[in-house]
Every structure is written in structure tokens, then in C-alpha cells.
Amino acid sequence: MSEFVSADRLAIAGGRPIVTDLLLPYRSVGAAEIQAVVDVLKTGVLSSFADVWGEAFYGGPSVKSLEHLWCEVFGARHAVSMNSATSGLIAAVGAARVGPGDEVIVPPFTMSATAMAPLAYGGIPVFVDIEPDTFCLDPELVAANITPRTKAIIAVNLFGHPAELQRLRALADRHGIVLIEDNAQSPFATEDGSYAGTIGHIGVFSLNHHKHIHTGEGGVCTTDDDDLALRLAMIRNHGENAVEPAGVEDITNLLGFNFRMTELSAALGVVQLTNCEQHVAPRQRLAASLTDAVSDLPGLTGPHVRSGCRHVFHVWSLRYDERIVGVPRRIFSRALAAEGFPNAEGYQKPLYLLPVFARRVAIGSGGFPFTLSQRRYERGSCPVTERMHYSELLSFPNCMYDVSERQAKQLAAAIRRVYHARASLMVHA
Ligand SMILES: *Cc1c(COP(=O)(O)O)cnc(C)c1O
What we know:
alpha/beta
């Protein structure tokens, strides 16, 4: 550092970054988690699942405790653990009886697994645009896209905020189709007092290492429907062997996978779920301080929380209006990063632009299942998603970091500093 470095100069122009302590990855594994895993290790039995109908079809004691506790905490009738939310989404689509050529409505602004799940059964993902304030499915557009071929809707509760779940559930019930919630990012979010993940017919939670509560890898499906619960369990664990002894008549999609969670992960999950608020409250506090920091800055808009909803802030989102701020988003984002504020321009590229859709190659090389549908995947089809991704959204992956109170203040100060010095940024354009 030379003597020319001024405390006031932006870090992108050679000043000292305002976030002085590097943000560390979120680390939630404490003594209780370690003890729980060691206790399982000492038994020597790391999984008790067997692919035969009977007690072991549903796994061992830790898997059962996690599922039991999950039902209690979220108020669901059934919880079926999985080895990931990706597996949970595939199982949910299978349980919903989606078959080749059937349509499943999904948003394009989500982690890719949401839209891959229908393809596993030859289903056709139909991308429907999002609302600009919550980044979740627009229910009016969902209604307009339901056809006789629609079998399910996968609503994503993105960034920690619920989609319009009750409206979507009513719509799904009216059409006799299944509402699946991809609730990977929003455990403990609520809509009118009900937990996200429990309003649709099936909710899918993720326990991967950067979600609110984690077991390394893992997932849980919730449902109040006995038939769907049985079907989820069959798909999780080689259902083809179990349908006959279980007396299951409708074996649609019940060839199974191995989506089973280990006893180690389940034991870890029980501890994390017991202390769940500890994994939510810090995210909410940080989000509140960041949102407060931008509340008087024209052109910057913090996350929207719909009336009656609780947001759990997997991601803290910032809507950026370049016409008002006067600096390209790209430059603002780089200046923030230089201050030690990790952020991304946009989020996930609109999923219909991925090669799997653009080139129409999914299963085999002959175009299956797209050959069964007239649907097209083209740039421009979901303008709100494209606007958010390519020009308006800046996102901070809240869930990936452990942020101290001091760092929270510095992050908030970083936004204000860059904003107030924005005129000096144009040299970087
Ligand atoms: C993380 C995530 C998934 C996938 O979860 P895994 O447990 O890693 O399979 C699916 N959907 C969304 C929205 C996610 O954020």
C-alpha cells in the first residue's frame, strides 16, 4: 500500500476495502452435531435401509427420528427423507405420476434441478415467468399456461420468500394437478402463518452444505397425502421390489432409485433442526441491516416481503435501477466486490437458455422427450426473468457466509460508500 491510498478512495480505485475481515464460509457444525455423528459411528450401523418391504424399507432409527421431528416442527403428516433435494424433486415429480409428454410448469429463475426433475420421467418443463418483486412464479401466468397436458406445477420459494402458495394450491386443486414446492431455500419461511413447504401437495427441502440447515448432502419431502407419501418412499428405495408385497395397485413410476439418506446425515439433521432458529435469525438480522442501508438510496431497492409473509433470506436481493443510479450494474457490482462485499450480477441464467433446452438434447440423442411437445425454448420468452438476470438484480449469497455484527455494519457501509462515490466509477466503465 502506498502513501497515496486514501481512506476515502473506493477500493476499486486503490483504496482500502471497507470490509476488513474476510467473510468466512458458514459453519454450523458444533459440538452437538459432532457428538451425534460419533454416536452413530460407534454403533457401526451407518444405514439400516433395505430394499424389501417391511420395517427396514423405511430406514434406521436416525432417519426415522429426523422424519418424525420434521413432521412435528413443520406440522406435516409425512416427511420422507432423501439424499438431496434434487432426488426429492425427482421423487416428487414421479409421485405426481408425470409421464412422457406431460407438462410441468416451472419458473426459469431457479437452481437447475427444479427444471431437470420432469425430464427424468420424459415430462416437458414449461417455463412461466416470475413476479418482479419476489422473483417467484406469477400465478396469473401459471393459470394461463395450464393445458390438458399439465400434470404438476413446481413453485420455487426463491431466496427465502414464499411464492403465492395458497393461490397456486387453489389453482392446482381446481385443475386436479399437483403443486410441488421447491423449498430448498426457504425452510421456516411462512405465508399467512403456514410454513412454506407445507402448502403445496408436496414440499421439497434441501440439506446441502449452503442451505439454512445442512447435513453435507440431504433432502426431505413433506406431504399430508398418504398415497403420495407411500409413492415417495417407493421411488426413494427400489419400489419395484416392494409394490407387490405392499399391495400397491397403481405402479406408475414406481421403479425405484436409491435416494436414501445415511444414519450419519440424519443424526446431524436432528441436531440442526432442534436448533433451527439459530440458523435463521442471523440471516434475518443481516438482511435487515442491509435493507436499512439502502432504504434512502434512490435506484436501489432491497428485498420485498409480501404482506403476511416471513422471509428467511437465503439470498439478499438488491434491485438496481441503472437509469437512476447512473452507473452500469456491472461496474457497481465490481466496486462492491472490491470493498469485500461478495455479490453476483443476476442469479441463475434463465434455464430455458441452457444447452439441454436450446439444443433439445436430454435423454438419448434423438430429442426425447422434446419430440413429444410443440413447446419452444427461446430468448425473450420470460421477459421479467431476463430483465432481472441481465440488468436489475444484484444478489448476495447470504447463506454461504458467517457474518459478524461488525462485518454486517461494514457490508452496509460498503453499499453506501460505493453509492455516494458512484460518480467516480465512470472511469471504470
Ligand atoms: C439447492 C437447491 C436445489 C438442490 O438441492 P440439493 O440438495 O443440492 O440437491 C434445488 N432447488 C433450489 C431452488 C436450490 O436452491
